[in-house]
Amino acid sequence: MSANSLKNILAKAVVSGVTEARARIFGHVLNPTGQRSPHKLLRKKLIGDKVAEWYPYDIKKDDPLVMARQEQERLSKLEMLKRRGKGPPKKGQGKRAAKRNK
Question: What is the pTM of this model?
Answer without folding.
Answer: 0.38
